[in-house]
TrEMBL record:
One Gene Ontology term from the biological process aspect of the record: nucleocytoplasmic transport
UniProt protein name: Cyclic nucleotide-binding domain protein
TM annotation in the entry: none
Molecular-function GO term, any one: GTPase activator activity
Keyword Repeat assigned: yes
Gene Ontology CC, one term: perinuclear region of cytoplasm
SMART domains associated with the record: LRR_RI (SM00368)
Organism this protein belongs to: Tetrahymena thermophila (strain SB210)
The entry's keywords: GTPase activation, Leucine-rich repeat, Repeat
Upper taxonomic lineage: Eukaryota, Sar, Alveolata, Ciliophora, Intramacronucleata
Pfam families, per the entry: LRR_6
SUPFAM superfamilies from the UniProt entry: RNI-like (SSF52047)
């Protein structure tokens, strides 16, 4: 039962707006992560979500399942995911973050993706996916202890460009506000 049972209970919480769930080091696996994600997809009013899923053996399938479910959480404005040590690899990180572009209200995103066997392809995909999150104002990505290499650094450059654009947008908004005074 485990995480899937918890997911079954959560799917009935349709008015939930804030959730912090700590399942660190519980071996929930891919099925548990996907089941949890499916339940969260029903929480359409969810605006603040923190998931602590580090060291749970969720793999690429679990990360992708979680990402697929999060695309339905269009009211999310703050999202923090701790997914270190889950061997999600390139495929998992792509499946996880590609759905975030659907979260049109997402303004604060923190991703802890260390020690997940993410390579150059995953880092590039991460950069491309984050570039589609046009309303981000705060972004933190932790990719320590992965196999990104020189080629993957180009994907990280995309992340840095996204951050630069975000800062420029905030500056332009501030200028617009000042000019209205």
């Amino acid at each position: 039962m485990g995480a899937s049972g918890l997911g079954s209970a959560l799917k009935n919480c349709i008015n939930l707006s804030n959730l912090t769930l700590d399942l660190y080091n519980n071996q929930i696996g891919a099925m548990g992560a996907s089941g949890l994600g499916s339940a969260l997809a029903n929480c359409i009013k969810l605006s603040n979500l923190k998931l602590y899923l580090s060291n749970n053996q969720i793999g690429a399938l679990g990360a992708s399942g979680l990402g697929s479910a999060l695309k339905n959480c269009i009211n999310l404005s703050n999202l923090t995911l701790y997914i270190e040590g889950n061997q999600i690899g390139d495929e998992g990180v792509s499946g996880l973050v590609s759905a975030l572009a659907n979260c049109i209200n997402l303004s604060n995103l923190t991703l802890y993706l260390g020690d997940n066997q993410i390579g150059a392809t995953g880092a590039s995909g991460l950069g491309s996916a984050l570039a589609k999150c046009i309303n981000l104002s705060n972004l933190k990505v932790d990719l320590e202890q992965n196999q990104i290499g020189d080629e993957g650094s180009l994907g990280l450059v995309t992340i840095k460009l996204v951050l630069w654009v975000l800062k420029a947008q905030v500056l332009l908004q501030q200028i617009a506000l000042i000019s209205q005074i």
